[in-house]
Model the fold of this input.
Amino acid sequence: MKILKSSISLLLVLGGGIGLTSYLTSCSCSNSISPHGSIPFTNEYFTWTTSSNELTITGLKDNPDLKKYNTLSIPATCIDNDIEYRVTAIGDWAFQGEFGDVEHNSITKLDLTNATNLQTIGEWAFNFCDLLTGSLTIPNSVTSIGEGAFVRCYGFTGSLTIGNSVTSIGTGAFALCSGFTGSLIIPNSVVSIGTNAFHGCSGFIGTLTIPNSVIEIRHNAFEGCSGFNETLTIGNLVDNIGHSAFKDCSAFDIIDVSAWTSVPIIESYAFEGFNNTDGGTVIVPSDLGITLSTFPSLPDTWSLQEV
Done:
């Protein structure tokens, strides 16, 4: 059963429709055969809209045969009546709650390997799809990951790879996806990391580098990412670090801002809960007059190192 939009919006206080609608009567993947175990990409199972030569997936039909399949695979193109459509978007709310109901279907894997034309993953597209497991790779063609796109997808148990064209990671995009493991690499195409974007993603480990492309890190963006246990590096273009942005990232032992050429706005509690028992070191440029008080709520067990 799908979850009411208003309810999900309230849940994310933690921290679109399509204009032209034209439903295809029949459609087949350009490679004509869906990957083994995948839902066939036909109008018996999917709904979509088209505009020009682009197709937006809007959801699944209530087809009892869905239980025969274990994988949702998104194709690059789709051909209907000799017209080829590029699959460019997964629409807002397209699959929300669909893969969290074992009575409805048996889908446990999301495969975007062939989705080479996909540009947008819409708001709340996969929220509460907690039966999805394994790793998730966002293709290099994707530029935008919408608000709440994968919120509360607890079941992912592998790595998260974000493609190198993504510019915006929306509010709560991966919030509470606590099963992701390994390193998190933010590609150097990203400009904005939204409020609660990775809130509660406690399974990531190692270092976290905010690349020089990022301008803003919004409120609570990485709050509760307690698995990171090495260095937090923040690039030189950041002009705003939001309230509680890194709160309770308790295992970092180094904060490296040595690339800064100016001091960004750093809001309250941004570094609260950095409670590594041995303290830590903040590496800063020597010419900006930075002190420990520049980093709100950073424990006094930390020290400053100028370079």
